[in-house]
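Lecture notes, unit on protein representations.

Consider one protein chain, 348 amino acids long.
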Amino acid sequence: MKKDIFASMKEQMVPDVSLEASLRYSIQTEKPMGFCGYIVRWVPTAVSVLVAGLLVFNMAMPSKAEQLPVVGKAFESLNTTGKVCRESGMTPDFLTFEKEVSEPFSVSLSYAECDGLDLNFKIELEDNNNSVAPESDTVTISGVCVELSGMYIYPTGENPRLTRDEDGVFRGWAKFNSAPVASLLSEGADTEAVLHCRGLCAYVEGATYEEVISLYTYDFSASEDFFVDVDLSKLKIEYVGLSNEGITIEYFLRSEDRTDVVYSVDDTVEYASCFSIYTESLAPSLISMNTVKDGNGRYIYNATFADNISEDRYDNTFPGEMTEESILVYSHATGEYITFETEMEISE
């Protein structure tokens, strides 16, 4: 039995006939390598071994390596650079490299100005890989907010909409309601802000909702730092601080043609994220629906009352004459109204 096994193994070790023939043909036809061929083959290998040996010698005895002829100066410069970088906690440039990353979109911001009520700035979006469909000249950035003075503010009215220019770059203006953070801003100071984006879709005339989602919505996220020029010279900030049932009227922000009311709701209030504000005679032209919690756990709201109310719809009460006594806060969850009265009114 063992003999049969060894015999089988011996047969398997014999090369195939075609392979044996190929080897014989190669040996018979291959021309012997000349002297030049050996030089070409072995010189690069010898040089590589020599360079590696010199580098190892420099690592072991740098002072001796710097005294070598021809290469000593190179080792001296190399060792000096490494010493300086180690002392400063840096990595030498020759040991670092930058990996090129092709982002599909790049964002740049400019001309950022804030008057306390609104933050306006210009957005430029470059389509690096021509991802946006050529039939679309308009894109909208969604999932967007601005981090300003430690709080988040949101677009006034609609998300930023950009239009493709002749050079292929999408450009447009963004407008964010900054009233909730107006009291935290400093006059004339360049304030740092961060734009956060998550989402991009293109407008194509006649496209259905399903087509927009599947064909014209693109993976896009960015966080871009920028500086804001703050000018509060035309804004009057009036602190109110009147509370009732966990709801506080924080500030009145008044300009020539507009009044903004900033109010907060404690997180202890039932359905704290479902409130709106009105007055006895005026409805706000804009209510901030993107309420967020501040550091104290309160929900911050904002309502804008613009001086563009038609007389046949409301009476002649000017928004600038609004008082805390005329304000009504409404809970959309419970249907309850909350009013505010001063101590003088209560005593009467």
